[in-house]
Amino acid sequence: MIGSLSGSLGRIGQVALFQLQLLKACGPALLRPRLVVHQVYNCGARSLVIIMLCGLFVGMVLGLQGYDLLARFGSESALGVAATLGLLKELGPVVTALLFAGRAGTALTSEIGLMRATDQLTAMQMMAVDPMRRVVAPRFLGGVIAMPLLAAVFNVIGIFGAQLVGVTLMGVDKGTFWSQMQNSVELRDVNEGVVKSLAFGVICSLLAVYEGFNTTPTAEGVGLATTRTVVVSSVMTLLVDYMLTAAFLKV
Known about the structure:
The protein has 251 residues and is mainly alpha-helical. The protein is built from 9 helices and no strands.
């Protein structure tokens, strides 16, 4: 048990040191915006389909469950408020982060890990090219930028799905649905979702590039690094979500 604890603490220290090196490389990487924009496309635009589909279905399920729950108290008109707050503050950022880790995070890890396994990163160092600036930092920045945008798309499609079920199927008044939502949702609710999505973007992107950069240069090592990316990113997302929720409730 002591050995596993020391190993976990050592791994946390390695990630912290890697993050410091990565932050130093982010400044020079921003001087090449084409690389960052390309990674935003890879992490964001190529994840839009799954984000939009899942957002629609989550919103529809939220509309069904929310209507069933509120109908027991005679408050069906509050469906728009309940669905919007649930998406903005919790479901939107969290589900987007889990989908991001499963799609974009694994892609980042496997791509960088394959470059490590085929000695492409070593070749860059031999040619006096810093792989942290050229390869890792643009992918990290692309993931951090893409996450809030994906969460926003998820929220919009989710609210549409909740409105589709609540108004079209369940008969909630459309004007009441939107008016109560607009009157009850505050800016701090939106800010909470934005802060969470940014935090999850940093966590998922950092873990993805770390696992890829430090993977064992074998096919098995790349596979294990990809698996660790999904597992650790998911656990850390839920843990940080609890911590941020508790912090916002105290504000």
